[in-house]
What we know:
Number of domains of chain A: 2
Number of strands of chain A: 9
CATH architecture of the largest domain in chain A: 3-Layer(aba) Sandwich
Largest sheet of chain A: 6 strands, parallel
Oligomer: homodimer
Strand content of chain A: 5-15%
CATH class of the largest domain in chain A: Alpha Beta
CATH topology of the largest domain in chain A: Rossmann fold
Order of helices and strands of chain A: EHEHEHEHEHEEEHEHHHHHH
Helix content of chain A: 40-55%
Amino acid sequence: MSQFKINKLCIVGVGSMGGSLARALRKNDAVTTIVGYGRNLKRLEVAKALGVVNEITTELSEAINNADVIVVATPLGAMQDIFMALKDIISSESIITDVGSAKQFVIDAAKNVFGEIPTNFVPAHPIAGTEKSGVESAQADLFEQRRVILTTQTNTEASAVKTIRTMWQTCGANVVDMQVEHHDEVLAATSHLPHMLAYSLVDTLARMDDQQEIFEYAAGGFRDFTRIASSDPQMWHDICVANREQLVKMLHAFNDDLQQLTRAVEKADSGYLKDTFTRAKQARDKFCG
Amino acid sequence: MSQFKINKLCIVGVGSMGGSLARALRKNDAVTTIVGYGRNLKRLEVAKALGVVNEITTELSEAINNADVIVVATPLGAMQDIFMALKDIISSESIITDVGSAKQFVIDAAKNVFGEIPTNFVPAHPIAGTEKSGVESAQADLFEQRRVILTTQTNTEASAVKTIRTMWQTCGANVVDMQVEHHDEVLAATSHLPHMLAYSLVDTLARMDDQQEIFEYAAGGFRDFTRIASSDPQMWHDICVANREQLVKMLHAFNDDLQQLTRAVEKADSGYLKDTFTRAKQARDKFCG
């Protein structure tokens, strides 16, 4: 088998995620030219100076010209506008993919613009990332041994799927396929809900009278627990709006459980408390141990 | 100033916390003899084999005989029984201290047994620890640059307070004084509430139909976020019961905030979401950055 190599890759939105993909492909010698596209030239210049991309432009038509793969790595809220801008200029030879955390939303945005999902569009979501944002935090090893979920549609071209699958495998990822709705449900539970809890907890504490002192006494576990509350607010706003149907279901389920736990603490219901903590510890140790 | 040295230290309950204190004092050459007391001889033998303590006994009177300092490091629920067992055999020459996370509860337990707080009892709480339990996880550096809160009473002997303060300082800790109620409030906010959220989240997910898959897809942040749900269920049961008044207040405050956030997600209230996430990120970066 000949080595996988993308001749020209275009990254639309060179932040932490797009930048990490660029670095990973470069490290694995799997790309010749990487063009970074964005609206902010200063930020693009940083990406180029850091060696994340080797060409930059604020002209989308120039960025995607002869691109083999176009990766849309903007916040979800910007994607429909990007699709709109691509609509009349994209070649059917280019493969489009994305890295969005809410797949029904991305697919709907594409349908809104193109009428139906383009056959050369492969919706994808790498389950990786840190609380840091910006191209400065891009890491070549971000996707190693992490999962990338593809939510391909019935009409997606097999050759396009194969290219995107191989692209992520080349970055060290384990690529899996999933139904769109199931993806959105799983991510609401394991990523979007925890982010809501971390943001909400830090905000609850930050509005207490003695916030300075409160945070000074935050014990060891607290730092890790709230790390994800340092994530980019705009990005998380977009995720909440984009996946709100599934997220709201999870928030209600969690709210119900927490209220039951609150009542158990009020009543000092030892059986309930020990059962809940034991079940949680066992699940955590089993799956994340 | 002569070097601080405890001739005989008795640890009642040689787990992660008591064991870490023993290791820290030994490392700093601040103790001659460390006696481990507990009801389970096998566990005490492990503590001795690991070099955490150098003497062990299941006889409390033997353990505390001639002890300069007695550290009660059991779960909170066992403390009143320990005080009861100590009542008729403790010498006024020995200083008693504890490491409990809920100070009003410990003080009430002492009052229930002794009628009033013994003047040689220094209630203390090191703000340190990990999700791991058992003497195997004891670490000599656990308290370095961490806070230890003393909630001394008006009748506490100054010389006893000085000894316990110096003992913790010798372990690298920063010792501070606090009112009992304020301690319980700050800990409810920064430690007890986050533990409830972590346990409750993991339990919510563990009861979903596709739990195996749910945990497989748990992204990077999730692992850190839920680490504290691996903490000892018995210990956390005791903390919930012991500090339930302050914890319930915090649970209600958090519940209210989370329900407001849930409504904002439902309505896709961009202003509310962005404001909340931005405020939380700023607080987190400012205090824990």
